[in-house]
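Morning F.,

Quick status update on the modeling queue. The single chain you submitted on Monday has been processed. Sequence for confirmation:
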Amino acid sequence: MDISELPPVNPKTGKRITEQESREATALPPFLIQGFDAQYVQAEFSGANTSGLVPFGPNVLVKMDQASNISAGGIIMVDQRVDRMNEAAVTGIVFEVGDQAFQHLSAPLKPGDRVYIEKYGGVKAIGMDGAMYRLVDERQIACRITEDFKALIEMEKAA
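Structure tokens below.
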């Protein structure tokens, strides 16, 4: 048997790692969302706008999902890489909608809706709660993420 075919050794115990232990050690935590090239921690909405920011006109306040500092392979990434991934985040949750936004839609967006926005879209703002938000024009929001789509993603993660 070639030595490269042997399972790795746990440095703490000195024993060989089983295939199950290896899978468990590299599994992503359940709160992460797999993006195109990164994992993101999903933004949460408590039901109230705690940012202190109120958009005017056709603008929408979106709290963006934050990039995880651990890659899919378990590598801890440097802060500069995480910051770049946060700049490029495209999913988030609507916190507040301006008074003129989405008037032309029969089912407009409302606070708590999850959305996709244009990459690098909007103006960055830090709220009173210390969280990062983006003020985006209604035209920069590509779509609403439905509950059916969220359920599909969860099923794929479980498989």
